[in-house]
């Protein structure tokens, strides 16, 4: 018995020790794997050791099963796993605790295809996948058919590997900014960029997509738009990127890529663009541009065009090679920055034949190639809080492409004193001539030289430079006489100094007049005064109440004046000298001619001036007007001017000039001008140049011009009570046809707005020639929106005199929802060129893949 009891005690001790060992082993095993139960439940929370994981893994699903031997957890139906900032939602999730792996899969349909993707959310960003494997420890992941969104862009890749929270590698990724595809209103993107390999780099401020070879697909159809690589933004911040070019052909230089380049933001206030134009016949152009901006202070940019234009075939007579350049600077100060000190700059320095030789087609489409002159200026304006003075400093450079000469002013300083009244009363309103005397005065300091490209900033240029100082004082006053007349008086005084004077002689050997500028300081003072009397007269012609024309009103503003100026060509002033011309006649000239301070008047002026301004209107019956009466302008203005100089020895009458402006039928704009010569001009037989005689009364047309414009549009022909399309047709298209309405027969209905401007101009100038010169042209420009997505624009100008087409341009644009297709064509003229471009509209790609060279200096920039 004792033996048996002892044996049982031993067995009991062995069992207790073994159970204790098993209990210890199971407790340790459960602690390491965070497994608390092996039953089906709605939610679970498991905790791993601190050295293995840094946070709690929370799980939730309709069905949860733990497999303890395999160290696995299975979640089915509305499964969810949370770890740190990562949340995974899927139809099915499995967790391998031994390998620290999470596998998630979307919901399958009856055919085994994914119908609802799995989703992962991290740092506020949501990603969609068909299948997804995530390592809890390393935070690395591999996903299939992953959809990654950021701002306005989305990437869908067959395989995505998450290296860390900042770097993603993708295989066969499709990049698009189609808003409908992003918002899942459409299952097919209207365009995407396909790359076999993509690297997505995510940052705190911005993200970037770096690809290998990339090709554009439109409506899933591959296009020839292929790049060897691309750097695309993937955030709403400024990002570096490739600038996509347009392509086309220009008759003189061949096929081209225009605007291929790269964009790089530099810090907060700068960015850089480098564009290139490449042509198959050897021409090239490089266009760097730096933009800068500081909010509420200033904006500006530096840009350049440097290139070589090659025409013809080397070795043949038509071959030519020329280099061109253009350097530009724009700077504008914010009006709020400093109201007392303003600085601005608009500088354009170009080679003399730049616009005729550049291969930058933008100048042809913008018609800059017609420029005859290029102007540049820099100015600074200083104002004072307590002083009535404004100081303006400017420098300007004006190039004349026809002569090859340039006018340089460096610098010009102008000091202007604000207008003041000499006898202004301390209180009350100014009355009478004395109290209304206003004084304007100022000082102008000027440095000027006319030079060419070769002499610019050389000793020759500095030797030719003129310096001048000029002061002007003007006084004016007016008052009312007899209630209906306005009487005005004015006086003008000029004082000037200059460093150059003119000596003019006739050279019989060359049969030319030689002008020599002498380095000599000289000055002059001049004076003039004038008085005028003006009134306004009204006349009204009324008709019967039954008449269609109710009344005609005529407003006439006649003015008569007198002006006086001494004869500063008199010998005692010393301002004028004489020389013998080619006919041996003594000819007077001013020593200040060709100077920068002007010349005093030559000859005594005691002239009576006459002018009449007219306005003619008509009132007619109109059922469209609420009052039943409508005003029609016959002539908005019809003016006449001339003068008679009592002191002139001959030709006392000046030219008779007429000008008029009116708008017919509220649409047709007409401007016209006429100049009549009051003295007879006689011509010798066979001579084209005539001689002006003192035989008054033989009026001849010396100049005539007329400009006509007639703007037409679809709105003119639309009835005011026209029913809106959206109200008339209720059926609306879906997805890609949402801008269309459909009638009961399923025909689309939409508005087709259009504009057409008809322009015509004619001018005739004769002077002392027998036949004169004529210029006449007719122009058309307009646009039509064929559909809500198709737009056509164009212009056509025809020279009536030469019977040639002067300028023609046609443009087509197609709105493809998330991108636009643009085609521009110039079929006639110096530049026969067509240009084709596909431009993305998304704001995220404003600095890359764009048609217009936008930068942060523009209003829509994110600063």
UniProtKB/TrEMBL annotation:
Transmembrane segments: none annotated. It comes from the Bacteria. Residues 209-679 form the LPS-assembly protein LptD central domain. Pfam families: LptD_2. PANTHER family: LPS-ASSEMBLY PROTEIN, LPS-ASSEMBLY PROTEIN LPTD. This is LPS assembly protein LptD.
